[in-house]
Amino acid sequence: MLRQPLDGGAITILLENPPETPLFAAASHPDGRLVYSSGRLPEVEIRLLSPDGSVEVLVEAARQMATDLSPDGRWLVFHSDRSGQFELYALDLDAEGARPRQITSEGALFGSFAPDGRSLYLRSRTYPGPAEILRAPFDPTTGLLGELESVMTTAAQGYTSSWWQLGLFEVTEDGLILAQLRAPPRTGRIVLVRNWALEIAERLR
């Protein structure tokens, strides 16, 4: 795992794992902490890297992946299938001995906080069928979600009706969604699209 300043400065090696043990960075905090996933499914640990280089295991190995950290650094969000299907879980990093709490019940992946930390975006776990991005209020005191509302559905934009072709995404301060779209296998491309729902709709006209 590497880090490089946005101005193009020197690259720093943060972590090194054996080739058979992948690392997936999830989110960083201004204080220097970094949450990441380590391992291959179905044995993935969620860990915290501190600025002093120490590593703490936050969630023991399971079929899971860390996806985001709240802006205040208190809440870790990850998806796991420990309930029988992939759902989102929240872990209070400020509470000693806290355990992950399931915060969705109808299938969810890739939770991503809005910049103010008071909304959570997520991807529906629908198969087969279109991928959908949903949004819900997030209570930073309790870690609970409010009612979900649909932000967009892939099939509605005419790009793809396959849920797996929508991968990771991020939400910017002005509400734009940055999404990773997997192109058809024959192309071997991964496409990053800024505010992708509007962009793709425009290109398909």
Protein model, in words:
With 205 residues, the protein is mainly β. It contains one helix and 17 strands. The strands form five sheets. The protein has a four-stranded antiparallel sheet, with no helix packed on it. A four-stranded antiparallel sheet has the order 7-8-9-10, with no helix packed on it. A hairpin with a 7-residue loop joins strand 16 and strand 17. The termini are far apart. About 5% of the residues have low confidence.
In brief, what are we looking at here?
By secondary structure, the protein is mainly β.
Which labels suit this protein?
globular; 4% helix; mainly beta; 205 residues; four-stranded antiparallel β-sheet
SSE arrangement:
Elements: E1 2-3, E2 12-13, E3 23-28, E4 34-40, E5 43-49, E6 55-62, E7 64-69, E8 75-80, E9 87-92, E10 101-102, E11 108-113, E12 119-124, E13 132-137, E14 149-153, E15 166-171, E16 177-182, E17 190-194, H1 196-203
Antiparallel strand pairs: 1-2, 3-4, 4-5, 5-6, 7-8, 8-9, 9-10, 11-12, 12-13, 13-14, 15-16, 16-17
Q: Compute the number of strand runs.
A: 17
* SSE pattern, N- to C-terminal: EEEEEEEEEEEEEEEEEH
Cα-to-Cα separation, first versus last residue: 41 Å
Number of helices: 1
What structural class should be given to the helix and strand makeup? mainly beta
- Beta-strand level of the residues, as a percent range? 35-45%
| Mean pLDDT figure | 80
Low-confidence stretches: 156-165
Strand sequence of the main sheet, in spatial order? 3-4-5-6
Per the principal axes of the C-alpha atoms, what is the gross shape?
Answer: globular
Largest sheet: 4 strands, antiparallel
Give the helix level as a range of percent.
under 10%
Our Rg estimate from Cα atoms comes to 17 Å
